[in-house]
Amino acid sequence: MTVLGYWPAEALGLWVQKVFETMGCSEEHAAIAAEVLLEADLKGIDSHGVARLPGYVRLWRKGRINAQPQWRWEQRLPAVAVLDADAGLGLVAARVAMDRAIEMAAVYGTAQVLVRNSNHFGIAAEHALRAVPHRMVGWAMTNASPLVAPYGSSERLLGTNPLCYAIPAGNRKPLVMDMATSAAANGKLELAASRNQAIPEGWAVDAQGLPSTDPLILQKGGALLPLGSDPEGAVHKGYGLGALVDWWSGVLSGASFGPWVPPFVDFLEPAPDQPGLGLGHALGATAIEAFLPIEEYNQRVEQWAERILQAQPAPGHPPLVLHGMPEWSTRAHRLQEGIPFTEAQKRPLHQLAQELGLDTPHENTTSLR
Amino acid sequence: MTVLGYWPAEALGLWVQKVFETMGCSEEHAAIAAEVLLEADLKGIDSHGVARLPGYVRLWRKGRINAQPQWRWEQRLPAVAVLDADAGLGLVAARVAMDRAIEMAAVYGTAQVLVRNSNHFGIAAEHALRAVPHRMVGWAMTNASPLVAPYGSSERLLGTNPLCYAIPAGNRKPLVMDMATSAAANGKLELAASRNQAIPEGWAVDAQGLPSTDPLILQKGGALLPLGSDPEGAVHKGYGLGALVDWWSGVLSGASFGPWVPPFVDFLEPAPDQPGLGLGHALGATAIEAFLPIEEYNQRVEQWAERILQAQPAPGHPPLVLHGMPEWSTRAHRLQEGIPFTEAQKRPLHQLAQELGLDTPHENTTSLR
């Protein structure tokens, strides 16, 4: 996987925005969608960044993403709301929903907004982190197309259903617990396949629901396993977390849920008899200062973080890290040097540019640093 | 482990209540504490039920549990509050906090109450489930004395820090996702030790932080591992969940946190220089009807539950169950037949009765069924 060059972050963001505008999104929506995708690339989560852009365009061409949605809000009680995203971009709907949750949490102390009739929302962290500058913890969950079989079943009943919490940490970068509720993400299987390596037991099962170490097993009707992998590893906990995310994002919001969640890929049609509208998300925020004065809180969270970082490593192990630290470090690098890309990452974007009659994204042949 | 007899549930509950009253608890507090402990036994979670009663009494004798606490409430915003439990029983403080969260959620749609200066609160499910009759999802988390080493460290930095969500499920029993954030609970190691069996890799590490299969490793300075067990199993997720529970229950509430959380056993003193007050809990509730009319919700959650239950099992596997189903089934049996006990379970309660000058709990020699 040779790096061919670097996309300067700002230029890439503007190019992505132009793609969304070409789809018919408003300038405001296109800018938000571009920002959310770009954040994934900046943090090194390449599978969820501009690599997904052609997928969004294909779904729009199929009429499954609405570039000019009419948001519809429902609010029955003061600190909670539902946003019907009218099949618009989840990247934007989740942002808008989170910002509304933050507004309400500032008044009531905690608030939640659920989203139905949406699409993939990008990385959960980008939404959850909106809360942190407001001195709040933020969270974001989404259901996703079915890819996970609860242990002991042969059926894909749940998505990788991620949940993320972003926590203010005083003078430190925010803590970010952002996790799929499966044992491994799809991208790890793809990486193993590209290297012709078997995958560890505990990541996936075959079409019958039995353990498999084949990295291509998902293309053969297999499924991912929940976090925990097997009964010894307490796989019922990962199954429970995945079900919880599906329940909150899907069942409670009015979105589709479980095995009915519409696929992200355009070549698979949504199952008939949908039980709800599109994908669902659950976002929320809770104000730190509702519980402690901010100075006292900052001192406490810093003490907690530093104690963990100072822990004695086991022989042969590096010191512990806090959640989010590796991604913050990658982000600082990539803001400086640009976002590195390979031939496999460049080709689909150039093809997209050609299809839409746009210039290709600006690139540098070497790192800017 | 021969069953010696059965304690009828109601009689056992009244006996436990009498023990708490002998400690000096009010009748109301004693009844709540007894109810919370008894629920654990009814559901088959014997490690968290009346087996812990002598532990509470020992902590009270040491002056570390206050039988007559003065609750102190802090409320800065409408939908959130903090309860300082004045070193009282967590069994009672968490109940009172949860009921306050439910009251606020009925008005605002969602609410949270944090508890500081508390003690062990029993099984999380008993608190979370309070929300369900009010047509709400309820949740309960608590930090706990340090017993878990994040993978790659030799230090016990976190407790088994459970989190629980209880979800209304229409015409079905509530769904209950109740899980320690460690790969295995302490009780599983004790069971393996009693059978002279090695434990699986991935449950625990030795005092250096290296993998161990010794069921007695916790007595030798070892530690439990977080859910996920190792990097292949995504142990950073279990570490993140354990840290999240500690942050919410401890750092944010004003309680102690991380390696400083006071031990439940009376023969270990709390670490000096405590960063906060006692154990902490985080409880909350969200009203279903803030999002969907209840009839529509019930239809959706039943469809979701039934789809999962109808999934095709993998060869050699039983059908899937939903979270909470095994415990509801045990509870129905034990309400009828009484709570079975062994010599090892009976002895400490009889000793406690003698110490306190009480009768021993009423027992039947055979099942009532």
Span between N and C termini of chain A?
Answer: 21 Å
Q: Report the structural category of chain A.
A: alpha+beta
For this structure, the CATH topology of the largest domain in chain A is Ribosomal Protein S8, Chain: A, domain 1
Instruction: Please list the strands of the largest sheet of chain A in the order they lie side by side.
Output: 2-3-4-11-5-6-7
Q: Can you put this structure into words, describing what you see?
A:
2 copies of one chain form a homodimer. Chain A is α+β, with helices and mostly antiparallel strands. Chain A folds into 3 domains: 98 residues, Malate/L-lactate/L-sulpholactate dehydrogenase, four-helix barrel (Hypothetical Oxidoreductase Yiak, Chain: A, domain 1, Orthogonal Bundle); 209 residues, 2-Layer Sandwich (Ribosomal Protein S8, Chain: A, domain 1); 41 residues, Hypothetical oxidoreductase yiak, domain 3 (Wheat Germ Agglutinin (Isolectin 2), domain 1, 2-Layer Sandwich), CATH 3.30.60. Chain A has 10 helices and 12 strands. The first copy, chain A, has a 7-stranded mixed beta sheet with strand order 2-3-4-11-5-6-7, sandwiched between helices. A 3-stranded antiparallel beta sheet of chain A has the order 9-8-10, with no helix packed on it. A two-stranded antiparallel sheet of chain A has the order 1-12. In chain A, helix 1 packs across helix 2. Chain A starts with a strand and ends in a 13-residue tail after the last helix. At the A-B interface, strand 2, strand 4, strand 7, helix 7 and strand 11 of A face strand 2, strand 4, strand 7, helix 7 and strand 11 of B.
